[in-house]
Design goal:
The protein is α/β, with parallel strands linked by helices and 213 residues long. It has one domain: Rossmann fold (3-Layer(aba) Sandwich), CATH 3.40.50. The protein is built from four helices and nine strands, in the order αβββββαβαβββα. Strands 1, 2, 3, 4, 5, 6, 7, 8 and 9 form a nine-stranded mixed sheet that branches. α2 packs across α4. The longest helix has 24 residues.
């Protein structure tokens, strides 16, 4: 039996519809969000350590490049002056917040760590304001030495001050530069390297604070 004109048109219509469906692009997937993970587990001390004096931890200052949630990298072998964002990877919060949270976790093992607003109650209690730790984030990027070799690079400037009747007085200042190797040349590898660099920087700052008279 020869196909009728109606059946031919119907078949052609179905074929065109199927072709049209297959041509519709998939919706772009959501960007993967990262943080620093649970962090290193501190070994339990044999005896309760003597707590150091309270410290005010100020908000970390930085340039606009690290104000958002973009995960940034640099191609050191091509153009080290250009910051590039990963298209499908984001931090769960701006890097200064993540770094401050990790630093607070580390410092809290040794002393009470306060926000600026919490210090006023303490000052009324004993008449003395705690010292203030200020940090400026200068670099936080996945640095590619070559297409296959890369690092998590973090640079901070730490400033320790105290409040006096004459105003804030500088006690000490230190530059912290840490890099940690990335296990893979991609966003996930950069995240692991940067998280490790943040952990190392937090430990270095904690040791430096212990050395201050």
């Amino acid at each position: 039996m020869k196909p009728t004109l109606r059946s031919l048109l119907l078949t052609a219509g179905v074929a065109l519809a199927l072709a049209g469906c297959s041509a519709i692009p998939d919706k772009p997937g959501r960007a993967t969000r990262y943080d620093f993970g649970p962090g290193p587990t501190a070994a339990a001390p044999a005896a309760a350590p003597q707590m150091l004096a309270p410290l005010i931890l100020a908000e970390i200052e930085t340039s606009s490049a690290w104000d958002g949630s973009a995960l940034l990298y640099r191609l050191g072998y091509a153009d080290a002056n250009q910051l590039l964002p990963y298209a499908q990877a984001r931090w769960s919060a701006p890097p200064p917040q993540l770094i401050r949270q990790r630093l607070r976790e580390v410092l809290s093992r040794q002393r009470p760590v306060l926000d600026a607003g919490e210090s006023s109650a303490l000052a009324r209690a004993d008449g003395k304001l705690p010292r203030v730790l200020r940090l400026q984030l200068e670099e936080f990027s996945h640095w590619f030495e070559t297409p296959r070799e890369s690092w998590g690079l973090l640079r901070l400037r730490a400033t320790l001050t105290e409040n006096t009747p004459a105003g804030e007085r500088l006690l000490a200042q230190r530059s912290v530069s840490v890099r940690r190797p990335a296990p893979s040349p991609d966003a996930a590898g950069g995240v692991r390297a940067l998280a490790a660099a943040a952990d190392a920087a937090a430990e270095e700052i904690a040791q430096w604070l212990q050395q201050q008279p």
